[in-house]
Specification:
Blueprint lengths: L5 H9 L6 H13 L8 H15 L3 E5 L5 H7 L7 E6 L2 H13 L6 E5 L2 H4 L7 E6 L6 H8 L3 E10 L15 H15 L3 E6 L5 E6 L1
Parallel strand pairs: 1-2, 1-4, 2-3, 4-5
Antiparallel strand pairs: 5-7, 6-7
Helix pairs in contact: 3-4
């Protein structure tokens, strides 16, 4: 998942804004107690999400795939004062830990976590989104996009994580379902006339999409 040499990665992180105490706690405890800690956005990607959120200044944010809440808290940093972030995850057991982190933050009243199947939850959300972050099951990336694109305002942004999929997307010998789904999603973002896109080679790849 990490494409930069370790020493270069450390230099980049050392010269980026540091994590807050709470984000450091989430980072540490996720690696100690939660399965698949590599799913955490982490320091550099978290600062990128925070910076993008500050640039966009969203009022309404949707996150598909919460995990332990690291990315949600990073995006919340750039929300408007009356902003709201809704995050969806289907892991009910992990949601207890994640909600606890949200309650420790100053954004506790602005973040709402919904537990369930995102494909079923999203249609019931009657909201116009300024920023959407997709970081859930890879097989449904294109389906999530199709569900939310009409709810994203013109000029709004969609960010999708893991679009390089540990390099599998450009390895022709890799043809598993998740890899094929990410390839199809990347091509869809590149050719859909409703959006413009750029793929950032940050960590495992961030697809940045702007609705036009």
């Amino acid at each position: 998942m990490e494409f930069l040499p370790e020493d270069l990665q450390k230099y980049v992180e050392d010269h980026s804004e540091p994590e807050s105490d709470l984000l450091q706690q989430i980072n540490r405890e996720t690696h100690l107690h939660v399965l698949k800690p590599r799913m955490l956005s982490g320091h550099l990607q978290g600062r990128v999400l925070s910076m993008l959120s500050h640039m966009i200044k969203p009022k309404n944010v949707l996150e598909i795939g919460t995990y332990t809440g690291y990315a949600a808290l990073c995006m919340a940093e750039g929300m408007q004062e009356d902003g709201k972030l809704i995050t969806i995850d289907n892991n009910e057991e992990l949601s207890v830990r994640t909600k606890g982190y949200f309650q420790q933050s100053k954004y506790a009243d602005q973040i709402e976590m919904l537990v369930g199947n995102a494909l079923e939850v999203i249609p019931a959300l009657n909201q116009q989104w300024d920023l959407v972050f997709i970081d859930a099951d890879k097989e449904n990336y294109a389906n999530y996009f199709d569900q939310i694109i009409d709810q994203v305002r013109v000029g709004g942004f969609i960010i999708a994580d893991n679009v390089l999929w540990s390099g599998k997307v450009f390895d022709t010998s890799k043809n598993d379902k998740a890899t094929e789904s990410i390839r199809d999603f990347n091509q869809k973002m590149h050719t859909d006339p409703r959006v413009e896109n750029v793929l950032f080679p940050i960590r495992d790849g961030l697809m940045i999409v702007r609705k036009i």
